[in-house]
Design goal:
Blueprint lengths: L6 H10 L3 H15 L3 H13 L3 H17 L3 H17 L3 H16 L6 H16 L3 H18 L2 H17 L3 H16 L5 H17 L3 H16 L8 H14 L3 H16 L6 H14 L3 H12 L8 H8 L3 H13 L3 H17 L3 H12 L8 H17 L3 H17 L3 H17 L3 H18 L2 H15 L7 H11 L4 H8 L3 H15 L4 H10 L5
Helix pairs in contact: 1-2, 2-3, 3-4, 4-5, 5-6, 5-7, 6-7, 7-8, 7-9, 8-9, 9-10, 9-11, 10-11, 11-12, 12-13, 13-14, 13-15, 14-15, 15-16, 15-17, 17-18, 18-19, 19-20, 19-21, 20-21, 21-22, 21-23, 22-23, 23-24, 23-25, 24-25, 24-28, 26-28, 26-29, 27-28
């Protein structure tokens, strides 16, 4: 007689097949029918977390801990305690997390020899040490956890511990070594050797480390892998928002700002469904798009939400202050951020330090930041780091009165940004090149560089950058608008009150092309409407 296929069997099978909603339904049903053994309660806790039911997941994890102790498995109980600590600390419930950490430690104290529970408990302890600013002590704890994981052949523990080793090495200022550890972790993750929750944690942490190391190539590779992993689990809530937040950051770099805004808002929607870990990233990236487009009030509100997570939204807020003309406040803020940053985060802040210090008039401080930014770079360094360093170097050379060297360096920065398909930053390098050309007495080349940069900024809707170029270009050319011949022609027709459809018919263009010309004209003139553009045109004698 065949053994009936029970709800528990169905739940285990659904979990293996990544059908999280089915797994939850079946495991809950099995639990109601007669309770679950501790390992299946752990499974149920994982499914609940993956579906964004965090409170429910914590309850099941607590029950699993109790059941392990009931059957005399202190090691399993300590492992559950360790996961509870990690989840509670992440949710900001530090006192409760600390209590579970103490309970877990008491459990492993009574065990003889090496045990997995001890290794798992080292992970939250090491994370707390890392977050408190002691990467050296954190590295020692992660290394001990890795030693235990390798000795016991515990795949999840090994992966989490090696992730910590790599992250702590990066925090200690050894990015290449740290990334090698992370690449090794990702081999086991992509091979499907690691459980779902550690897998998601590792994906997101590795992407965060790639961001700190400014390694765009790795970030793109692992973001695509994370998207595939999330896509294969369509009902999963946990980790989906982190995936979207990282995508938004890459989209901003590549100039797809409208799409980045949509993706960031999508991440915020997932956060509301139970994925709080991505709150900072989603709101910070949304704020970045608003800042770059000159929507200061919206940027400020989004940065404020990001700051509510406990992470400092820098350098975004400092750059927003600079954009608003508050150079002294921006300088004080970025200096405070750098003073409290670990080596990896400090490198990420340095390009903004250079920009802000120069705007505040402290060229010596900017030069110091450039030297820190370029220290240790070589031909094999991540292109993003090389591009950022070259751009910063060009800016300081201009400030120091070395336009020829600045021009060469700005053009090198432009080539690097162009290779990275980063249009906004590439255009900023062209602005530096234009300023250098003007200082070298070559106004025609300066005008060409300014116009090329202006076209990119206008296409992106980067109003503050457009305004800056207008100010810089007027100083050398006396041209108030830098409008192209076609744009002046369109402006004349706008000023006569004609619609886009009428203009398109007269100039033998598509309405879409006319709409783009109109958008560029408004951005270049720094005005909000067609009526304002008409007023500006007559006031500045741009049309007869």
């Amino acid at each position: 007689m065949a053994v009936p296929y029970t709800a528990l069997d169905q739940g285990r099978s659904a979990f293996t097949e990544r059908r999280w909603s089915d797994a939850l339904e079946c495991l809950v049903s099995a639990d109601k029918q007669g309770g679950l053994p501790p390992q299946d309660l752990e499974l149920l806790a994982s499914v609940s977390m993956l579906l964004g039911r965090n409170s429910q997941g914590l309850d099941y994890l607590g029950r699993a801990h109790d059941e392990y102790l009931t059957v005399g498995d202190a090691d399993g109980g300590a492992r559950c305690a360790a996961w509870l600590v990690m989840f509670l600390m992440d949710a900001g419930e530090r006192a409760l997390g600390s209590g579970w950490l103490a309970r877990g430690r008491h459990l492993v104290e009574g065990l003889e020899g090496m045990n997995a529970g001890e290794g798992y408990l080292l992970i939250p302890a090491a994370l707390g040490t890392l977050r408190s600013g002691d990467p050296q002590a954190s590295h020692a704890l992660f290394s001990r956890a890795l030693q235990i994981g390798e000795a016991l052949e515990d795949t999840d523990l090994k992966a989490m511990a090696r992730l910590g080793v790599g992250t702590s090495r990066m925090a200690l200022g050894h990015p290449e070594e740290g990334l090698r550890h992370l690449d090794e972790v990702m081999v086991s993750v992509t091979a499907g050797e690691v459980s779902p929750i550690p897998t998601g944690i590792i994906y997101c942490a590795v992407l965060g480390s790639c961001r700190l190391a400014q390694d765009v190539g790795r970030a793109q590779e692992w973001t695509s892998a994370l998207e595939r992993w999330c896509g294969e689990r369509p009902d999963m809530v946990m980790f989906g928002a982190q995936c979207q937040a990282y995508r938004a950051e890459l989209l901003i770099l590549h100039g797809a700002w409208d799409q980045a805004l949509e993706v960031a808002k999508s991440a915020e929607g997932r956060i509301r469904k139970g994925d709080p870990d991505a709150t900072f990233g989603a709101w910070y990236q949304e704020a970045e798009v608003f800042r770059l487009r000159g929507r200061s009030e919206e940027a400020g509100r989004a940065y404020k939400v990001a700051a509510g997570t406990g992470f400092e939204p820098e350098p975004g807020v400092a750059l927003l202050q600079l954009q608003e003309g508050k150079a002294a406040e921006a300088q004080a803020r970025i200096r405070r951020a750098v003073a409290g940053a670990d080596p990896a985060n400090k490198r990420r802040l340095l390009p903004a330090v250079v920009e802000i210090e120069l705007a505040a008039g402290d060229a010596a401080a900017a030069r110091t930041a450039v030297e820190q930014l370029t220290q240790g770079l070589h031909a094999g360094s991540p292109p993003l780091e090389l591009a950022s360093a070259a751009q910063a170097e060009a800016a300081i050379l201009l400030a120091e009165g070395e336009p020829a060297a600045a021009l060469s360096t700005a053009r090198r920065a432009w080539r690097l940004w162009y290779t990275l398909e980063a249009p906004f930053n590439a255009a900023r390098s062209r602005v530096l090149a234009a300023r250098a050309c003007a200082a070298l007495g070559d106004p025609d080349s300066a005008a060409m560089e300014f116009e090329a940069a202006l076209e990119v900024f206008a296409d992106l809707g980067a109003a503050p950058a457009v305004a800056q170029v207008q100010v810089l270009s007027r100083a050398g050319s006396g041209d108030d608008s830098l409008l192209t011949t076609r744009e002046l022609e369109v402006l004349g027709l706008i000023s006569s009150g004609q619609s886009n459809k009428s203009i398109a018919r007269q100039l033998f263009l598509s309405e879409k092309t006319v709409a783009r010309h109109v958008s560029n004209i408004l951005a270049k003139l720094g005005v909000p409407s067609r009526a304002a553009a008409t007023s500006y045109a007559f006031g500045h004698h741009l049309i007869p």
